[in-house]
């Protein structure tokens, strides 16, 4: 490599090895923001992708988001068929999410790709932070349109929209709003965060709803109901268990972090523990799980397995992490966020496995172009209907 700046190369390799200090990380981002170093960093990245053998020696790749999320090192598997969504020639959008503050799109403009572009009549913008709050009296508030500040008062509870766009409940003294039930709901292409009266935080994914009392005062437990997908950071309160009810089960915790996926179009409700412990119960079945485990409940059976947490909480972090997901499950995640209907041609196999990692902030065509480069499937987008073809 010619005209290499020693410090840039040093920082890049420390970045790849997960050894940057916070000061060095900022220094590296400063270089990345300088157009004069774009080609050099671009070349360093290209060399890393060319040297696959070096990748396998890195520390489990877990710390290396750049390569763990984008590069699927299990390509030798022949069954089921892999769909590697972002190969070397098409990783620009994915890498841009790694060094967000730098705004760099590596390989943009200097890579040639003969793959035909996705047939797009009208491109689809990504989803947004938005939701609808339904108060106990039936009043509906579109949070996208509401100004920051106080939205409502209910029996001693003040409901506000914060400057960073989250819903916050503040319980005043002598509040008695336990019977005031609120519902926070998101449509396709929407996500929102709420801080409940007990201080617990809940992130709602697209096409989801959370039902909860405006105050937990005078209640023996903190009970909420979830439809769709939510990520919970539960405030500790040993005297008042936190219970999440879905269509087929209940999850009981005292204070922990976990994700529940209860979409009706998924084969099972998936409860994934990030921190602490939870008890999942359905009928006469009960099971405790530990961090890193996911319990799948299909209505008749519990199955527990170790999972990659990054695949589960990607949506909360504004990402699609689709590594080793069934292709159709990956497409359901994409469809909810972009509010589209996916139609499969009969020739598209059922057993394909996806791979790849990309921001949820890009337009739909960027994601589809990346997937299509795998040459396993093709797309045709007409309005809000996406056709998947072999």
Question: Could you explain the architecture of this structure?
Answer:
There is one protein chain. With 390 residues, this protein is α+β, with helices and mostly antiparallel strands. It has a domain at 128-311: Sandwich (Jelly Rolls), CATH 2.60.120.1440. It contains nine helices and 27 strands. It has helices spanning 6-16, 22-33, 38-50, 52-55, 65-70, 92-96, 309-313, 327-338, 364-372, and strands at residues 82-84, 119-120, 128-129, 132-134, 140-142, 149-154, 157-161, 167-171, 181-185, 190-195, 201-204, 209-213, 222-233, 242-245, 250-253, 257-262, 269-275, 278-282, 285-289, 293-297, 302-306, 319-321, 341-344, 353-355, 357-359, 378-382, 385-389. The protein has a 19-stranded mixed beta sheet that branches. The chain has a four-stranded mixed beta sheet with strand order 2-26-27-23, covered by helices on one side. Strand 12 and strand 13 (222-233) form a beta hairpin. Helix 1 (6-16) packs across helix 2. The longest helix has 13 residues, at 38-50. The chain is globular. The relative contact order is 0.12. Mean pLDDT is 78; it is low at 52-115. GO terms for molecular function: sigma factor antagonist activity. Residues 183-279 form the FecR protein domain. Pfam families: FecR, FecR_C. The chain crosses the membrane at residues 89-107. Keywords: Membrane, Transmembrane, Transmembrane helix.
* Major sheet summary line: 19 strands, mixed
- What's the level 1 CATH class of the domain at 128-311? Mainly Beta
CATH architecture of the domain at 128-311: Sandwich
- Look at the structure and give the mean pLDDT: 78
Continuous helix count? 9
Low-confidence stretches: 52-115
Q: Tell the overall outline.
A: globular
Please count the beta strands (DSSP E, at least 2 residues each): 27
Percent helix:
10-25%
Task: Indicate the structural class.
Answer: alpha+beta
The proportion of residues in beta strands is: 25-35%
CATH topology of the domain at 128-311: Jelly Rolls
Please give the alpha-carbon distance between the first and last residues.
40 Å
- Rg, alpha carbons: 23 Å
């Amino acid at each position: 490599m010619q005209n290499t700046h020693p410090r840039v190369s040093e920082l890049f390799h420390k970045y790849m090895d997960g050894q940057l200090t916070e000061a060095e990380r900022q220094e590296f981002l400063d270089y990345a923001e300088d157009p004069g170093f774009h080609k050099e960093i671009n070349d360093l990245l290209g060399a890393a992708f060319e040297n696959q053998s070096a990748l396998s020696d890195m520390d489990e790749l877990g710390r290396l988001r750049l390569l763990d999320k984008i590069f699927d090192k299990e390509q030798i598997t022949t069954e089921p068929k892999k769909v590697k969504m972002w190969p070397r020639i098409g990783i620009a959008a994915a890498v841009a999410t790694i060094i967000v503050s730098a705004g760099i799109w590596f390989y943009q403009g200097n890579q040639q790709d003969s793959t035909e572009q996705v047939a797009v009549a009208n491109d689809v913008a990504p989803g947004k932070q938005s939701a609808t709050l339904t108060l106990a009296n039936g009043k509906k508030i579109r949070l996208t349109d509401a100004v920051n500040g106080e939205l409502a008062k209910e029996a001693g509870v003040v409901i506000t929209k914060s400057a960073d766009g989250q819903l916050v409940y503040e319980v005043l003294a002598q509040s008695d709003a336990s019977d005031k039930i609120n519902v926070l709901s998101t449509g396709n292409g929407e996500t929102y965060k709420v801080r409940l009266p007990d201080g617990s935080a809940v992130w709602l994914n697209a096409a989801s709803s959370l039902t909860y009392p405006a105050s937990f005062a005078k209640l023996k437990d903190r009970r909420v109901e979830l439809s769709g997908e939510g990520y919970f950071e539960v405030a500790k309160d040993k005297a008042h268990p936190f219970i999440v009810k879905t269509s087929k089960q209940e999850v009981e915790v005292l204070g922990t972090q976990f994700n529940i996926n209860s979409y009706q179009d998924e084969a099972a409700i998936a409860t994934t523990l990030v921190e602490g412990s939870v008890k999942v119960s359905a009928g006469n079945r009960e099971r405790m799980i530990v961090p890193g485990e996911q319990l799948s409940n299909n209505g008749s059976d519990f199955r527990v397995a170790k999972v990659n947490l990054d695949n589960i909480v990607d949506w909360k972090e504004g990402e699609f992490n689709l590594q080793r997901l069934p292709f159709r499950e990956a497409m359901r995640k994409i469809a909810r966020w972009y509010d589209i209907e996916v139609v499969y041609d009969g020739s598209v196999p059922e057993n394909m496995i996806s791979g790849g990692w990309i921001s949820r902030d890009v337009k739909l065509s960027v994601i589809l172009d990346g997937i299509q480069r795998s040459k396993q499937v093709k797309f045709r987008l007409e309005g809000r209907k996406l056709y998947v073809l072999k």
